[in-house]
Amino acid sequence: MKCPREVYTPSPRPYEGLPEPQYPFHDRTALVTSCGRICLHRKKINLSKSLAGQAVGIREVENGIWLVSFMSYDLGYIDLEEKTLQPLENPFGPLVEADSAADKTTPSRENAAAASSNSMEPAGETEASNAGEQPAEG
């Protein structure tokens, strides 16, 4: 068996990296400092050191409440009064589309949780038995 360096050949294509993120639907673009902060209206807000050196999009959604996005992911909301970032549940999870009246076949997280809790009931129990009535035998 050969060692990896014996079979390695460099790629003929040069690596150009990712393009600089653009935020056309945001009010401004902010650069995250090396300590993981952004400055917004003379206030320092901690985001994450993992975003150091990256550009994030910032959009005001309400008076004093700003949405922070990285690439196509919404990270959370900044409250300028408290100078804190309130993260979203999981910005990198699957995208959830708005429910439409015609399409109710896709279960939401709430429906899935309710379905799993209903499936935990012992066999033979019904809503009537949960209300204090005896299940019908027969």
Verbal overview:
The model is unreliable at 100-133 (pLDDT under 50). This protein has helices at 4-7, 109-118, 127-130; strands spanning 28-31, 37-40, 43-46, 55-62, 65-70, 73-79, 84-87. The chain has a domain at 28-87. Strands 1-4-5-6-7 form a 5-stranded antiparallel sheet, with no helix packed on it. A two-stranded antiparallel ribbon has the order 2-3. The protein is built from 3 helices and 7 strands; from the N terminus they run αβββββββαα. The longest helix has 10 residues, at 109-118.
Summarize the topology.
Elements: H1 4-7, E1 28-31, E2 37-40, E3 43-46, E4 55-62, E5 65-70, E6 73-79, E7 84-87, H2 109-118, H3 127-130
Antiparallel strand pairs: 1-4, 2-3, 4-5, 5-6, 6-7
What amount of the residues lies in strands? 25-35%
**Series of H and E elements:** HEEEEEEEHH
Number of helices: 3
Average pLDDT score: 76
CA-based shape: elongated
Going by helix content, strand content and strand pairing, the class is alpha+beta
What are the main properties of this structure?
7 strands, 27% strand, alpha+beta, 138 residues, 5-stranded antiparallel sheet, elongated, two-stranded antiparallel sheet, 13% helix
Briefly characterize the structure.
This protein is of the alpha+beta class and 138 residues long.
